[in-house]
Amino acid sequence: MDLRIQQLNAHFMISLKSTMAYFSDFVLRIFFQLTEPIIFALLWTAVYAASGTSTIAGMSLTSMYEYYFVVAAFAYSYSWLGWEVSEAVSEGRVLGYMLRPLGFPTAMFVESLVFATVRTALTTLPILALATLLFHPALSLASILMIMLIMIMSFSIMSLFWFTLGCMAFYVTEIGGVIMFFTFTNMMLGGTVIPLQMFPDMVQKAVFLLPFQLLFYVPARIFSGAINTAQFLGIVEFAIAWLIIMGMFAFLVWDRVKRKINVFGI
Q1: Helix residue ranges, H only, 75-140
Q2: Which of 94, 125, 170, 264 is the most exposed place for a label (fewest CB within 10 A)?
């Protein structure tokens, strides 16, 4: 067990040094990322003015501003494991990973975790700090812990999802289009375009059965104080169920993919 922890730590540190080579890029992205909530703010300002109402779907214009600022922050803690897996397959790096102590799936997860951790520290947290200064949400220690837990669970679920999707690269030459499609789906159903409560009732019922809400919508609602402790416990149970489902599915897919791999390649 101690050896395994040392191996994980070594791979984590190597990945961290590699990721930090792009430090200036991460910092610059803060300014580019802020353009998205500003554009949405201008759009919703026009919508509220044209509608002549102070609230839409239970949200005031100010709460709408807050929502998009917070969603923009969480977008940078997103897992991009699908791209990383497909690139490792197309570049023939899978066997090299499998010969290492950690193995391919674990190494991919660690690298994705490092990347997301750095992005969270350098972009997500500064934008959340700005949102806190601008909107003065009633944040408590409990709500901060809830946000952290949901971020960890959503990252784990989506990493399993993207790893499974990335394994398609073992069967087809190019999956970039598939990954882009599901990226848009995740963003749309995760609440980055419009808050999920604005979908029609029938669509809402379907969307709230999927795990994408955990990515952006749920953290943003916790940040604004719209989700209480009792509701949060139900969300955690929901997340655990999806974590088990995606974990089993990823295990089955990887077990099948391993049979395609031999000492001569893929």
Answers
A1: 81-90, 94-98, 104-119, 125-135
A2: 264
Map residue 47 onto helix, strand or coil: helix
- List 59's β-bridge partners, or say none: 56
User: What letter would DSSP give residue 122?
Assistant: I
Find, among 46, 45, 41, the residue nearest to 67 by Cα.
Answer: 41
Q: Report in angstroms the alpha-carbon separations of 192 from 15, 40, 72, 195, 219.
A: 29, 10, 8, 7, 12
Task: Give the model confidence (pLDDT) of 24-56 as tens digits.
Answer: 666 666 677 678 888 999 999 999 999 988 999
Give the span between the Cα atoms of 222 and 79, in whole angstroms: 20
**What's the angle, vertex CA 10, arms to CA 8 and CA 11, rounded to 5?**
65
Lowest-pLDDT range, 49-58, 143-152, 222-231, 251-260? 251-260
Nearest to 165 by CA among 155, 175, 151: 175
Buried b (16+ CB within 10 A) or exposed e, 37-73: beebbeebeeebeeeeeeebeebebebbbbbbbbbbb
Give the residue ranges of DSSP H helices in the chain.
Answer: 2-19, 23-33, 35-51, 61-74, 81-90, 94-98, 104-119, 125-135, 141-166, 176-190, 201-207, 217-223, 229-258
What is the number of other CB atoms lying within 10 angstroms of the CB of residue 225? 13
Contact in structure between 169 and 86 (CB atoms under 8 Å):
yes
Q: Is the pLDDT of residue 11 over 60?
A: no
Note the pLDDT of residue 63.
93
Q: How many CB atoms lie within 10 A of CB 32?
A: 9
